[in-house]
Amino acid sequence: QLQASGGGLVQAGGSLRLSCAASGRTFSTYTVGWFRRTPGKEREFVAAFRWTDLSTYYATSVKGRFTISRDSAKNTVFLQMNNLKPEDTAVYHCAAAPNLIVSSIHSALRYNNWGQGTLVTVSS
Prior knowledge:
Blueprint: E1 2-5, E2 8-11, E3 16-22, E4 30-37, E5 44-50, E6 55-58, E7 66-71, E8 76-81, E9 90-98, E10 113-114, E11 118-123
Parallel strand pairs: 2-11
Antiparallel strand pairs: 1-3, 3-8, 4-5, 4-9, 5-6, 7-8, 9-10, 9-11
């Protein structure tokens, strides 16, 4: 089971850190991804972390502003979001799947475990 937290209201240019904690399993052989959804839009890939080789992947729209990382001891994946923009406003979900190949990482359909969303609102 995945638990996402850390959303909130922030002004443009501000920062937030989202957390995705797993219970009942460890992430050690998984890929953990963050996706976001806004009304009227399809779910969008944001970032992913492959636990097996510690590789990270980002959507072009967030590269250089967001950083995905993990805390192995806490079995948690973080999404540090800096220089937030109003267009980052969305419900953010974390998801996990047994180690995905690189070509599948951006596809929400490949993830079979989803946490509830956490709302991020960025005001202008």
